[in-house]
Structure formats: C-alpha cells, structure tokens
Amino acid sequence: MNALVFLSHTFFLYSAFRILDQSFCDASSSLRRDGKFNYAHFKDHLFHKLHVPKLEGAVVQTRNHCLQKCVKNPQCFSTNVAAFHRPDGNVSCDLLPTDRFSAPEKFRANHSFHHYSIAVSSKQFQVNESF
Description:
By secondary structure, this protein is an alpha+beta fold. The protein is 23% helix and 31% strand. It has one domain: Hepatocyte Growth Factor (3-Layer(bba) Sandwich), CATH 3.50.4. It contains two helices and nine strands.
C-alpha cells in the first residue's frame, strides 16, 4: 500500500513540474508571449525548409524542444528542424526571424528538414513537451 501511495505522489509531482516548466498551448490564439505564459500552435510542413538567415542554430533533444526555443525567443516566427536524428540522438534546430508566408519564394521542398510555422488555420500542432 505504501508503494502505491509513493508512486501516486511521485506521479503527481512529476506532472506538476512538467506542466509548470512547459510552454503552454491554448486554442484561443496562435501565439502568446507575455512573460508569464508562452505558447504557440505550429503547423508542420514535412520535408520542406525555409531558406532564410537564421536567428540561432542549436542542437536539441527533440523537435518540441526546438519549437519551445522559438516560442521563448520574441524574434522567432518559425523553425527548420532536421528530419533525422544525429548520431548522438539529438536533432538540429534553426530558429528563423520570418515564416513561409512572409518569404514564400524561399520556401522549398527539402529531404533533410521539416519546417514549422506558427499556425494561422484550424489545423494546429501544439507544443506540450517540457524540457
């Protein structure tokens, strides 16, 4: 019985810290950056890349970590994320200062990257994985 109580308390604490540490998503808006809660809805464009100068290049554990970096950077409006993991298990992440709508001539099919732009339609990808 004590093991069950311990496990339930551990799960509660893990969940609480995970929620507090993540970038929150809300269906009422596509982007929010106000210093208290940051969230965005991203649309995925698989095997596409936006060829613009990047704000920052990073190596992160997952695609969601890249999207969270973008949400936390006020200058970031989209990302290019490597479609395949590096030998160390991480992925390359490029934070971009614009999106495919502002630079459509720079948006192209690509075999190595997926592009994620802040969603403007009802089909949205939510960032909900914590660091």
